[in-house]
Amino acid sequence: MDLNDIIDLETYPIFDETFCEKSAGTLDSSGALVLPGFILPKALSAMQAEAEENESKAYFCAQNHTVYLGPVDETLPTDHPRNRMVESSKGCICDDDVPQASPLRALYDADGFRAFVKAVTGERELHPYADPLSSINIHYANRGQELGWHFDNSSFAITLLIQKPEAGSRFEYIKDLRDADAGEMNYDGVGALLDGALEPDVLMMEPGTLVLFRGRNSIHRVSPNQSDKTRMLAVLAYNNAPGVELSENARMTFYGRLS
């Protein structure tokens, strides 16, 4: 399948240098590049049908974790922002359950799309995961399921909304709430957010929207799904070096299997 059949290239000329430079500027200045209607309706319908058909294969789990996605610091109180727990609950199917003929896989594998992502993010190389599970994931959130507040470990993330629920599941964030490279964790700011004293921004999106998001310093969450319609979201994950695998512990935690 060709990118002309997947992407609205008239609205989003990803091969155009000027468009790429403008997109990179948006990502750098706002922390998020939001491209509504990036996926053409026919391709989106195919992605929706595939995701719905394969939902029965999803591994569902709920996890308690810190905002910083790290171990508890025993030198600090349990109610310290570094140690306070939030919950994430979702289902996930892995790369090996995405059909070979899927437009989602064609998008992920296309040299032109990777060139666009490299131009926007400033990465010199992009490679798939070496393990068979981690490159393309589809996340499912049913009623009451959510993604708790956290900072990402990676420098950027790529998501594609496939299906939107009728209520809830809002993507909420605060840009640059910490500076991880400088070692500034901003515990006071995180504590204020967890206590409800800070109002986050909301990133609005409809099915077919592609988002590139810098979540390493921008805290974010997806609020609980408040409807009976499942939220379905594809995550496209690349590495800046070949041969990288998600750890066995992470695969068991997130996918319930190693291969």
Automatic annotation (TrEMBL):
This is 2OG-Fe(II) oxygenase. Residues 131-242 form the Fe2OG dioxygenase domain. Keywords: Iron, Metal-binding, Oxidoreductase. It comes from Pseudahrensia aquimaris. The keyword Cell inner membrane does not apply. The keyword NADP does not apply. Belongs to the iron/ascorbate-dependent oxidoreductase family.
